[in-house]
Write the structure tokens for this entry.
Amino acid sequence: MTSENNKERSMPVLTLTNLAKRYNRKVWGVRKMDLEVEDKEFVVFLGPSGCGKTTCMRMIAGLEVTTRGSIILHGKDITDLPPRNRDISMVFQNYAIWPHMTVYENIAFALKLQKKSRSEIDRTVKEVAAMVKIDQLLSRIPGQMSGGQQQRVALARALAVKPKLFLMDEPLSNLDAKLRVVMRTELKAIHQRTGATSIFVTHDQSEAMSMADRIVIMKDGEIVQVGTPDDVYFRSADMFVAGFIGTPPTNFFPVEMKTAGEKVELSHPRFAILISGSDADRLKNNGQNSLILGVRPEEIKVVPEKDSLLSVEVMVVEPQGSFQIVAVEIEGEIVKIVVGSAGKIQPGERLHLSFVEERLHFFNAETTKRI
Amino acid sequence: MPDTTEIQDRETKRNLTPYLLIAPVVIYYIIFWLFPVINAVGGSFLSTSLDKGGIFTLANYKAVFKDPIFWQAVINTTIIVIISVTLEFFLAFGLALLINVKFRGSSFFLFLAIIPMSLPAVAVGAMWNSGLATYGWLNSFLIRIGLIDPSNKILFLAGTHFSRMILIILVDAWQVIPFMMIILLSGMQGLQPEMAEAGRVFGGNRWQVLRKITVPMLKQTIITAMILRIIAAIQIWLIIVMIFGFNRLPVLMEQIVLNIDQYMAEEFFRKGMALSVIVAVLVSGVSFIYLKASGAFDDPGSREGDE
Amino acid sequence: MTNNLRRNAGRTMRMTTIYILVSGVAMIIIFPMFFLFSFSLMSDYETYSEWPKPLLPRTSVDYRMDHSGNGNFRLSIWNVSENDWMPFGPEELNRNPDEIKKLSRFLNNYGNTQFSEEEILTAMKLTDQDGFYEFALRKSLIHNYRRFFKLYSGAARSVLQSLYTAGMTIFISVSIGGMAGYAFARYVFKGKNILKLSVLFVRMFPPVAIAIPMVVILGKMGMYDKPVGLSLIYSINQISMNIWITASIFMGIPESLEEAAQVFGTSKTGAFFRVTMPLAVPGLAACAMYSFIYSWNEVINAVILTQFNPTFPVVVYKSLLGANAQVHLIAAGSIAQALPAIIFTLFIRKYILQMWGGVKV
């Protein structure tokens, strides 16, 4: 599961080895987590709720006791250290701004505890406040502020300590949709400016895709795939990832494989396609005849009837402005197709479709793993 | 597996804090509650010093059960508890619903409403004692506003046994309704208004929304209010003694106080102990049945707050 | 438009109903308290010689002095209910300094009015001039309160005992109860439910029955007849209440605030004192006042567990049960006892709903 970037690998800043968390000796929050995070990297933990991503982050922060495994930060084992000795900082989902302190006191809290000089504290507070654009609000009480402003205070507070590791637990999930997109951009800009190694937890795949250097996709307390946004999108490790990443998600078709000389033929009740080249070799080597074909919505093309693989009737059209999402039914399954906005498509219309052959995904029907 | 022990070590270490925090309560209750209670229960089974003291006996209990006043007290207490808790619940619920609507002066009304619950029982006793007396303020007031004739004073305190009971129930209601109302009101304020609104959107009328949505969602709060009231109502006595004096309207707690504090003899003292054990068993039995019937024991985990 | 009007009319109707109901309930709450207060301001004369009793306590009293024949004087008081002058004090009054002194005291004790010997002499002079003399005196409103404290010796000292007891009760029950309340609010641990129910169970054993063995236990500890001993008994009930209340308070403070403090440099304990504690102070103060009210009001345990150092409620209780109880004096004592409770209610008011919000069996 290595990234295929040519980036040279340096010493990891954070190493998680065999990390696991069990609640009440019964329920596993995180089963097994092995991960290396590099310097200045922006890593996103992505997964549906209950997948263990937040638990994992809380273990890194020291807010949960780890049941097993180790956490190494900058060569130091911090597994059993209390949060304050870990050199980390964190932005909480509900911001956790202390309501009995002013914005200034919130940001200065950690610096005061570090016994920094007054002038240094003042300088740092003003610097980070300017960075997140709340320099006008420093004397305010958080209770009177909007969610977006509280979010910025939480961010400023986390930035002020200049940590080795910057943790963000779904920081944007309580904001409205528009503000969320604005903050996304700002967060990315701040990251580029400070270069702080960051871990960001979210369940929103588009947030992950747009911000991450690398995405860690989790399910049921385990890592499913680690990779760049391109990796997880174009080379999804299994059907779960393919179905989770991208909107609308990947369409799946159960197919039977038949060898046809060099090539292989995949047949579905409604269509059959011939696969050649390295894809064909891989499929042959896989040895199983039943498999799942995955096709992303934008890799299904509307073509003239003579070039088509199959023809379908349009069920629903969802216009999106620059494109439209067309839903059709194939063998009882809803299949979604992304079509350009030119040429309005009407429900009931017949469409002739084909697949972009070099972008097909193949999955093992039993293990759901990528072939 | 080799790391099993490690798992256990790390998990037990964390679990110690809550036990440290509750340790003082447990220790306190062992010394200042359990110990005296064992003493009292034990004492209720011992014979008096006149009668070869300190030997196990059921005489104290026999004395209680043979006493006709005890049975009178059981009946009186039962009637008072049933009527007063029911009455107080409905009135308090109505009041809570009323205050839960925002109106000008609602916070002042809330202040007013909670005064009676913080008043000393002695003051409440004095208040009604001076009010219900034949030449008390209630008669004065009724004469002044012309409701009754000066020659037809109402003899509140000289009524029948049952009217005395009703009087006590009303006076008790005057003081404790606010307490019940506060608990119900704070429960109501914790409900999301959308729930009731949704009920109305889907065509329920006010009454249906109350019955089918508000009350079921307040179940926990209602159980809490009721159980606290039931426990307190069984132990009602002071107001009765303040208004009527001892033995005019016997109830269980009053009989305990009477035996333990008023008659200065060991015989009565031990009888009082036996009585208090009986009352404790009664209170916990009734509470248990109520909690069981209302489903407070069902699935306690669901209220634990999830991870 | 009409729809709107109808809706407005409906709303007005509803609000009117609410106001009528609310004022009705308010009356029921206020009247008894008002009359008790009114009684506490009445003089002996108003209490025992007027019927029906005045609804409002009088602030001044009208007197009339005239001749009783053979050169002596006679004093009358204006009886409002009878709407007539009624004789007040001795039938015959002469200028004897002893009798004048007695009359002055009589006016003070039975009419709650101040009239010095010199003023009586002046009044006599004016009566001689005009045949009669009418005068109004301001009634002393705190007279009964003064008399209550004078009559029931030790009442003043018992107030101190009560305050001390309440202070100790607050200290014990809020600290012990608060710790457990915090554990209930923040942790999931084995035995939590059993403990929660036992806390309720503690309230089921009649406190009187606990008080008796406690006489011996506290005696051995040297705490019998002392406020500390009493506060230990009061804490039995109050700790169980405070566990519920403080748990409710702490649940209202998000745990993430503490976690944030831990991440930003404090220990777990530090986070509690720097973040949770300051935020809980108003709620805890309300909880403390609640404990105060309980301790300040409690009677029967105090009766059993004190001997020479009774608390204030005991004094009032005994005065009420006493044979020659005087209604207006007891009213004064009761009002004096109720006053702190009412003042504290004023403070609690804002927090009371928050205090009970999370309380669940």
